[in-house]
């Protein structure tokens, strides 16, 4: 009895320790104390904008409005929520990004009426002051005119055009004897369009499109246990982490401005200092590489690209088990080699040769060879991981008297291929061969023909130009 009580106590303490450690990183940094105000947070592109090389001459630009065009409100399960999902001060974020780049001289246009009113007040005040001076003295003077307003050569327009929620959601959890933990995540995405318009002729000089994901994560642990027939212990702990929408919007806008500078240099809209040409050329090259990757980038974070050539060779090991008239069939490891010819991205013709033993313990054992021809279909040819299926015909015979004892069979199999590198594929598959004869094991019995079950692993190497 004493031992059981101690065991319960140990179990209880370990459970509490597990729950505590599960979220200890958040608990140790829990924002429970006073936090003073600070300067605004920066994003990776804030630093890139501030380190851009100097331009040959700054371009005067105006931003009249850069607004949330989604019209979307924050999601709420129980009540109507009239708060917008996107921050409404996006014009200020864009102006700050243009200023940080040091490539543009920004002028006030969002609240131009306030500026004109203030200039009118200054003008009226100066005129009244000069008139009062003229009344008290014989001097004749006029009010000093205000300098003219700057006019923009380029107008920056656009906005946030989409806020897509729950693009990807998921989670995992486990519970055992009342002790459990779970993890959940959700991914949203915002999209930003930015365009530069010439005030000289109204021509759209350049349009930039950027996007940014917003990740939300939740971790939790729980304990639910009867520690005594009349006492129940229940405890929960957890932490939720949401990426700020403001920072996501800021990063997407800064990325758009960064790209606008580089695209403008590439198209000759503005120039950099001659001494900075190599740095700018390097940034443009990196930008082009990113564009090529994004051309094949899918919304679920998969890169769609041609990874297989028009030809392939392969080799691997496989386990072979006979399904015949005898009992106690053993799986015997053999090897196979083969080649593929692609018809298009998804379909290919496969030919392979295998060497293996078939055995029933203590009854039958013989070495065989097989020659197989299959038509294969790859379900997701542009993904790194793809299932596939195949079917065809083959010839099988004993390697001791192959040409005198050839049998036919029908092949069918499924598998999955993982490509860690372009042109290299790792495959795991299962195959069932339906024999057309009942004498593979030299024994004819009943109406069922002899069959063969295979499980294999192979390495594929692809070469040649990919099929379109």
Describe this structure as you would to a colleague:
This protein has an eight-stranded antiparallel barrel with strand order 8-10-11-12-13-14-15-16. Strands 1, 2, 3, 4, 5, 6 and 7 form a seven-stranded mixed beta sheet that branches. Helix 3 (44-50) packs parallel to helix 6 (245-266), helix 4 (90-101) crosses helix 6 and helix 6 (245-266) packs across helix 7. It folds into two domains: 44-73 and 84-109 and 152-295, ABC-type transport auxiliary lipoprotein component (Rossmann fold); 311-463, Porin (Beta Barrel), CATH 2.40.160. The model has no long low-confidence stretch (mean pLDDT 84). It is elongated and about 135 Å long. It is 24% helix and 43% strand. It has helices at 2-22, 24-28, 44-50, 90-101, 112-136, 245-266, 277-294; strands at residues 59-62, 67-68, 104-107, 154-176, 179-198, 204-228, 231-242, 311-323, 329-330, 332-342, 347-360, 364-378, 385-398, 407-421, 424-435, 451-463. By secondary structure, the chain is of the alpha+beta class. This is Curli production assembly/transport component CsgG. InterPro entries: Beta-barrel_OMP (IPR027385), Curli_assmbl/transp-comp_CsgG (IPR005534), OMP/PagP_B-barrel (IPR011250). Residues 306-441 form the Outer membrane protein beta-barrel domain. Keywords: Cell membrane, Lipoprotein, Membrane, Palmitate, Signal. Residues 1-28 form the signal peptide.
């Amino acid at each position: 009895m004493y031992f059981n009580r101690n065991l319960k106590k140990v179990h209880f303490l370990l459970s509490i320790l597990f729950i505590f450690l599960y979220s200890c990183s958040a608990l140790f940094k829990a924002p429970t104390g006073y936090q003073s105000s600070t300067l605004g947070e920066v994003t990776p592109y804030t630093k890139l904008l501030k380190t851009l090389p100097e331009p040959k001459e700054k371009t005067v630009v105006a931003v009249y409005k850069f607004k949330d065009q989604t019209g979307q409100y924050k999601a709420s399960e129980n009540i109507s929520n009239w708060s917008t999902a996107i921050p409404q001060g996006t014009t200020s974020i864009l102006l700050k990004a243009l200023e940080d780049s040091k490539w543009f001289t920004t002028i006030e246009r969002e609240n131009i009426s306030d500026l004109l009113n203030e200039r009118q007040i200054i003008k009226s005040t100066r005129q009244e002051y000069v008139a009062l001076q003229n009344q008290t003295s014989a001097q004749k003077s006029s009010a000093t005119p205000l300098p003219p307003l700057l006019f923009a050569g380029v107008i920056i327009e656009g906005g946030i055009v989409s806020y897509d929620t729950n693009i990807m959601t998921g989670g995992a959890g486990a519970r055992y004897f009342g002790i459990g933990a779970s993890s959940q995540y959700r991914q949203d995405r915002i999209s930003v369009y930015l365009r530069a318009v010439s005030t000289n002729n109204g021509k759209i000089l350049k349009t930039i499109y950027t996007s940014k994901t917003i990740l939300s994560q939740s971790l939790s642990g729980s304990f639910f246990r009867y520690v005594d027939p009349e006492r129940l212990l229940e405890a929960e702990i957890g932490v939720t982490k949401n990426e700020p929408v403001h920072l996501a919007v800021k990063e997407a806008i800064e990325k758009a401005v960064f790209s606008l500078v580089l695209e403008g240099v590439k198209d000759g809209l503005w120039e950099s200092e001659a001494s900075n040409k190599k740095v700018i050329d390097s940034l443009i090259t990196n930008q082009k590489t990113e564009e090529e990757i994004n051309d094949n980038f899918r919304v679920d974070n998969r890169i769609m690209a041609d990874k297989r050539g028009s030809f392939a060779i392969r080799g691997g090991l496989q386990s072979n088990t006979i399904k015949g008239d005898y009992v106690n069939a053993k799986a015997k490891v053999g090897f196979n080699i083969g080649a593929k010819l692609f018809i298009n991205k998804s379909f290919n013709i496969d030919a392979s040769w295998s060497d293996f033993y078939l055995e029933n313990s203590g009854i039958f054992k013989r070495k065989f060879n097989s020659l197989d021809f299959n038509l294969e279909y790859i379900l997701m040819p542009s993904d790194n991981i793809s299932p596939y299926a195949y079917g065809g015909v083959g010839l099988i015979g004993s390697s001791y008297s192959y040409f005198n004892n050839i049998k036919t069979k029908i092949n069918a199999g499924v598998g999955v291929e993982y490509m860690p590198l372009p042109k290299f594929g790792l495959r795991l598959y299962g195959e069932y061969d339906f024999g057309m004869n009942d004498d593979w094991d030299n024994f004819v019995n009943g109406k069922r023909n002899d069959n063969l079950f295979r499980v294999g692993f192979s390495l594929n190497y692809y070469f040649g130009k990919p099929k379109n």
